[in-house]
Amino acid sequence: MGIIVLFHLVGIFLLNFTKGGIYQIALDIVPLNIIFTVLVVLKYQSNWNTGIMIFGALGILSGYFIEVLGVNTGWIFGNYQYGDVLGLKLLNTPLLIGLNWFLITYCLGNLIENFKISKLFRILLSASILVLFDYFMEPIAMKHGFWEWQNGNIPNQNYIGWFFTAIFISAIFQFTTWEKTNKVASFTFLIQLLFFLTQNIL
């Protein structure tokens, strides 16, 4: 948990208080940060079975291909395009974007598992929180060139698209059977939310 906090604190500092070469280095390591965070979180997945494998595969692939459809047609989220910050792209879409959808859904899903509510309400709650997460993430992502929107305006369609995409991936999380008790994952989601919230304040 300390490593995750440190990594995000360093990211906040480098992205907001540096310029030139150091700032560019901070952008260059964003893909490494995503991969590193996934590896740290999954290290604390206590039990591996076919359920988590199915969720992992479907979560990553569905997240990626929904973004492919979105960025190439404008049908899902609106008209946007990715910059180079998130690394290698295929079909105009960073390969890491599916991994990122998996990460945030997995981490938030583990947090919501603590709530004594039905699977349906967990799915709806997860989707709602992820829309809030995106609301705080969008201005920061645009500022640092992760992606850009046509005319610089974030359409309401984006949040509707996020809601239904999150419902789909969260449903996969809920309806696959495996041990969902990763405290590091729950903590990581809160840290990532604070990461974007803090930068909005700064």
State the main characteristics.
202 residues, mainly alpha, 8 helices, 71% helix
How would you sum up this structure in a few lines?
With 202 residues, the chain is mainly α. Strands 1-4 form a two-stranded antiparallel sheet.
Q: Topology of this protein?
A:
Layout: H1 2-17, H2 20-28, H3 30-43, H4 50-73, E1 80-82, E2 89-90, E3 93-94, H5 96-112, H6 119-143, E4 147-149, H7 156-175, H8 183-201
Antiparallel strand pairs: 1-4, 2-3
Based on helices, strands and strand pairing, what is the structural class? mainly alpha
> What is the N-to-C order of secondary-structure elements (H for helix, E for strand)?
HHHHEEEHHEHH
Number of domains: 1
Distance between the termini: 24 Å
- List the uncertain runs: none
Shape: globular
Radius of gyration over C-alpha positions, nearest whole angstrom: 16 Å
Largest sheet: 2 strands, antiparallel
Helical segment count: 8
Strand order of the largest sheet: 1-4
Task: Count all strands and give the number.
Answer: 4
Strand content: under 5%
Fraction in helix: over 70%
> What is the averaged pLDDT score?
96
Give your account of this protein's structure.
This protein has 202 residues and is mainly alpha-helical. It has helices spanning 2-17, 20-28, 30-43, 50-73, 96-112, 119-143, 156-175, 183-201, and strands at 80-82, 89-90, 93-94, 147-149. The protein has a two-stranded antiparallel sheet with strand order 1-4. Strands 2-3 form a two-stranded antiparallel sheet. A hairpin with a 2-residue loop joins strand 2 and strand 3. Helix 1 (2-17) crosses helix 2, helix 1 (2-17) runs parallel beside helix 8 (183-201) and helix 5 (96-112) packs across helix 6 (119-143).
